[in-house]
Structure formats: structure tokens, C-alpha cells
Design a protein that fits this description.
mainly alpha; 339 residues; flat
């Protein structure tokens, strides 16, 4: 019994040890082969099996699949001599395998066997055809959406930030503004859509107002919470050293409230995407939302899915950019911020 217990303990300790480098390389190579095989199978199915409907870009998509398969293998092999590159490639391998299998199944069901109803579910090379042939309109839509999102989000963030600071600092300001925020804030911004398009001179300015309203409310509330949560001892110490009110606001209250401010910015950014697309669908005659509605109206479902992919990439990029700015601004709190 003692021998069995000792063996189990040794086995448990051994399982907790990090795997040796050759074992990691072997598992990475096997995973790379599996991922490459899935993409090569996708290329073979795309090129050799006939389409149920002619979508175009068959050869190009097959070549792209072969390129991905070769790049995965080359990355793993190069990682043997370049550890930093190898680590990055190894982190991508599970997702590469999953995407390869997903694309293969998608290609079979949509483009080759016709098990998914057409033209509602175009195959992967149908989307590639949209990206290669209709990219000027997609780029134009991205620029228009980014322009609208930038103006609305920046305006809402600036106003919301200063309103939040004033709410947290001034009781008089809070007395008058707090009831208004409690009354108007919970109303969804989309509900203001008819009034905004009637009251503003253009659909663009009305959309900027709606996005700013969506962004400003969470920024104001979280900034207010951050300023109100500052430890009073900080103010007492600063006053003891001769700090005036301006110093207390700009050097004590605002820096201490910045983590809360960024929570509000992330909430406002996420909510503003929904208002952006809705505004472009309802009134603004440009942007990805407008392109999406146009594609739906003409039953161009491949264009619709392509616009959704571009929209997802754009929104993810903006969120990642805000994370970069947060890490830069809150670098003095590195290690304390866990989100």
C-alpha cells in the first residue's frame, strides 16, 4: 500500500513537471500536420468537386488553402530554430486546425453537396469572390463607418468624462444633473432615432448624436463612480502639502478614477457599435450597415456575409486599440489591472 501511494505521488509530481522540449516539438509537428491536412483537404475538395452553383474564384481559394497549409508547416519547422516564432505558431495551431475542419465542412455542405439552401449559405470561395471583386465598396463602407464612429464616440467620451468628473466633485452639479441622468440614461438610444433624424439637419449629425449619447452615459456614470471612490486620505495628504482644488481634481481625483473611466469607455464602445449599424441602416446612406442592408435587399447573401466579417474585424480592431491605449495610459498600474 505504501509502495502504491509513493508511486501515485511520484506520478502526480511528474505530471506537474513541464514537458520536455522534444515532446513539445513532436506534439506541435503532429498538430501542424493535422492542420495542414485539413487545409489541403479543403483545397482538394474545392478544386476537384464541381460546384452546384457557379460562384467563381475556385482556383484562387484552392491556392489560398494550399498556401495556408504550407505556411503552417513552414512556421513550425522554422520555430525549431526561432523559439519566439515557434511559440507564436504553436499558439495558432489549434485554431488553424479548427478553422480548417470548419471550412472543409462548410465547403462540402454549401458549395459541393448543396445540403445548405442556396443562395442563403454561399461557400467560402463565394465570399472570396466578393472580397476580390467588391473590395472598393467594402473599403468605402469601412471608411464611412469609422468616420461616423470616431466622431460620435469621441464626442460622447469627452462629454461623459467631464460630466462624470463634475458629478463626483460638485454636489451642486450633482443635485441638478443626477435626476436628469437617472431619467434619460436608461432609455435606449435607438428610441431617440425618430426625434434625432427630425431635429438634426442631416442624418450624419443625428447619428453622431445617437452614438455620443450611447457612449456618454456609461462613461459619465463610471467616471462619477471613480471620482467618488477615491480614498479621502489622498485629498487630506495633498491638502496638507498645500494643494489647491485644481491640483486635487487633475492630479488626484482623475488619475485615481482612470480605471473606472476605461470600464465606461469599453461599455460605451460596445454599445455604440449597435447604434452605428442601426443608424446606417435607417438613415445614413454610407457605411457597412448601409452596405449590409443593400446586400440583403438584392439577395446578395455572399456580400452580406462578407460585410459581416469586415464589420467583425473592424469592431475587434477598435476594441483592441482601446486595450492598447488603456495599457499605455495605465502603465503605472501595471499588474493591478486584471481585465
Amino acid at each position: 500500500m505504501t509502495l502504491i501511494t509513493t508511486t501515485l505521488e511520484q506520478g502526480s509530481e511528474a505530471s506537474n513537471l513541464p514537458r520536455s522540449r522534444p515532446a513539445i516539438k513532436t506534439s506541435a509537428l503532429l498538430l501542424a500536420f493535422a492542420a495542414s491536412a485539413s487545409w489541403l483537404a479543403t483545397a482538394s475538395v474545392t478544386y476537384h468537386m464541381p460546384d452546384i452553383i457557379d460562384f467563381g474564384r475556385v482556383t484562387e481559394f484552392a491556392a489560398l488553402s494550399v498556401f495556408i497549409a504550407a505556411a503552417l508547416l513552414a512556421g513550425v519547422v522554422a520555430g525549431i530554430w526561432q523559439p519566439a516564432l515557434g511559440e507564436k505558431v504553436r499558439r495558432l495551431l489549434p485554431w488553424s486546425l479548427a478553422l480548417g475542419v470548419f471550412t472543409l465542412i462548410w465547403q462540402l455542405l454549401a458549395g459541393k453537396l448543396g445540403l445548405l439552401p442556396q443562395p442563403f449559405f454561399p461557400p467560402p470561395h463565394g465570399l472570396l469572390e466578393v472580397f476580390t471583386d467588391d473590395y472598393p465598396k467594402l473599403i468605402e463602407g469601412v471608411i464611412a463607418s469609422l468616420r461616423l464612429e470616431f466622431f460620435g464616440f469621441a464626442l460622447g467620451a469627452i462629454i461623459g468624462f467631464w460630466v462624470g468628473v463634475a458629478l463626483g466633485w460638485s454636489r451642486t452639479f450633482g443635485y441638478w444633473v443626477h435626476p436628469i441622468m437617472r431619467f434619460i440614461g436608461p432609455v435606449p438610444s435607438i428610441a431617440w432615432l425618430p426625434i434625432a433624424f427630425f431635429a438634426f439637419p442631416s442624418s450624419f449629425s443625428a447619428s453622431v448624436f445617437l452614438i455620443a449619447l450611447t457612449t456618454g452615459f456609461p462613461v459619465a456614470v463610471l467616471t462619477w463612480s471613480g471620482v467618488a471612490s477615491v480614498n479621502p486620505a489622498y485629498y487630506d495628504v495633498a491638502r496638507t502639502l498645500g494643494a489647491n482644488e485644481r491640483f486635487l481634481i487633475f492630479k488626484v481625483a482623475i488619475p485615481a478614477a482612470l480605471p473606472h473611466v476605461f470600464v465606461g469607455l469599453f461599455m460605451g464602445l460596445g454599445a455604440s457599435f449597435a447604434v452605428l449599424v442601426t443608424a446606417e441602416m435607417m438613415g445614413v446612406k454610407a457605411g457597412l450597415g448601409f452596405y449590409l442592408q443593400w446586400a440583403q435587399g438584392w439577395a446578395a447573401y455572399a456580400n452580406m456575409y462578407a460585410a459581416l466579417i469586415v464589420m467583425a474585424v473592424m469592431c475587434t480592431g477598435l476594441v483592441s486599440l482601446l486595450f492598447k491605449i488603456r495599457d499605455r495610459v495605465l502603465s503605472y498600474q501595471k499588474g493591478d489591472v486584471k481585465w
